[in-house]
Design a protein that fits this description.
single chain; 402 residues; alpha/beta; Aspartate Aminotransferase, domain 1; seven-stranded mixed β-sheet; four-stranded antiparallel β-sheet; 11 strands; PyrdxlP-dep_Trfase_major; cysteine-S-conjugate beta-lyase activity; PyrdxlP-dep_Trfase; pyridoxal phosphate binding; EC 4.4.1.2
């Protein structure tokens, strides 16, 4: 766990890099990474186990503290993020918790970007505040406001590369530099962008978190998280994950390894589909607004053009006329797209943030970032985009006609 992996051949394209088999030795010349579904490992020598548990030697003793399949996934993610090292957690929330604790082992301010997954401030409130940590909100789109907050409350800044659910893109290049200047560490949740669209370590992030459950896994069949960064910080996070018992099951890591090999291909298609869908739905009579950073109408379009690579991600936000009743009719009218309170699948799905991803926020906090019961989050998949457009158009017409 927390081992150093990053390959020197940094010119390799991500489409090639993502399908490469981890450069580690497997027994019996396996063509793909084997699944080491074991809780422990046998030895014939007490001294050998003693050396391993003392950190003097290479090997595994107990899968909570290390597993070859989990390490193979860590290797792949470190390669994709161009990082020194990575460590795998039992979930994305476990990764964020370990990341905050690794960056600030003692109580400190946790400065959270206004537009962020609702579970992140929920984690701070429910777990970290009782330990003495304090939560502060940060407007990442107002330089003067951001500077004042960071200056007054240096600690750990947590921000997303592409925000959940309206696709806000913070100016990470200037924001991270400002945070460091003001004495804060920075943890970037890169779940929505994935390494295909952004590699926040390039902008100076201290750690990058992923909900591997989403696009890296890509098939709604696993729960896992990851942290990538320097060898020192990921080793510190690995110790926290081990002691707290929030390390992943090897089978989840194996599924994520399988998914990661098609990450670039899936994100390329899903991103193209998202741009086409958001363009087609813009101006629809049933919609008040379409949110997608690839649209010139999006407030962060210029920032997204500057910071994101190879497209703008696969999340589209829709604001429907008619509020929750219209949303309910819309969801029930969709024929190809299911309601799923998650995202990142190969199939397109929809969710409503106020009842799922952002229910832990107060109504005032939701309103501050333009989230209410009229907003739908669309996780665009890899289907034929014309099929998606026709399904969304007919569902929107049905939602608005009753």
């Amino acid at each position: 766990m927390g081992k150093s992996y990053c390959r020197e051949a940094i010119s390799i394209d991500i489409h090639t890099l993502s399908v490469q088999i981890p450069a580690v030795e497997w027994p019996y010349n396996a063509a793909t990474p084997p699944l080491y579904q074991t809780s422990a490992y046998t030895y014939h020598s007490v001294d050998e186990v003693d050396r391993l548990l003392s950190g003097d030697g290479r090997g595994y003793t107990y899968s909570r503290g290390g597993n070859p399949t989990c390490d193979a996934l860590a290797y792949v993610l470190a390669e994709l993020e161009r990082a020194e090292a990575a460590v795998i957690a039992a979930s994305g929330m476990g990764a964020i918790l370990a990341g905050i604790l690794a960056l600030s082992p003692t109580a400190a301010p946790v400065i959270v970007a206004r537009e962020i997954y609702g579970g992140t401030p929920g984690l701070v409130r429910q777990v970290l505040q009782p330990l003495g940590y304090t939560l502060y909100w940060l407007n990442t789109h107002n330089e003067a406001e951001a500077k004042a907050t960071l200056q007054a409350h240096p600690g750990v800044l947590v921000v997303e590369s592409i925000s959940n659910p309206l696709g806000r893109v913070s100016p990470l290049d200037t924001l991270i530099a400002m945070a460091h200047q003001m004495g804060s560490h920075v943890l970037v949740d890169n779940t929505f962008a994935t390494p295909y669209h952004a590699q926040p370590l390039r902008f100076g992030a201290d750690l990058v978190a992923h909900s591997v459950t989403k696009y890296i896994g890509g098939h709604s069949d696993l729960i896992a998280g990851a942290l990538v960064g320097s060898k020192e910080l990921t080793q510190r996070a690995a110790q926290i994950l081990n002691v707290m018992g929030i390390t992943p099951d090897p089978f989840a890591a194996w599924l994520a390894l399988r998914g990661a090999r098609t990450l670039a291909l899936r994100m390329e298609r899903a991103s193209q589909n998202a741009l086409s869908l958001s363009t087609a739905l813009s101006g629809h009579f049933a919609l008040d607004r379409v949110y997608y950073p690839g649209l010139s109408s999006h407030p962060d379009h210029e920032v997204a053009q500057r910071l994101l690579e190879r497209g703008y991600g696969a999340i589209v936000g829709l604001r429907l006329h008619g509020g929750r009743r219209a949303v309910e009719r819309f969801v029930q009218s969709l024929k190809l797209v299911p309601f799923l309170p998650s995202l990142g699948d190969v199939m397109t799905t929809v969710s409503q943030p106020v009842v799922a991803s952002h229910r832990e926020l107060t109504e005032a906090e939701q309103r501050a970032v333009e989230i209410d019961d009229s907003v739908v989050r669309v996780s665009v998949g890899i289907e034929n985009v014309q099929d998606l457009i026709e399904d969304f158009q007919q569902a929107l017409e049905s939602a608005n006609s009753r």
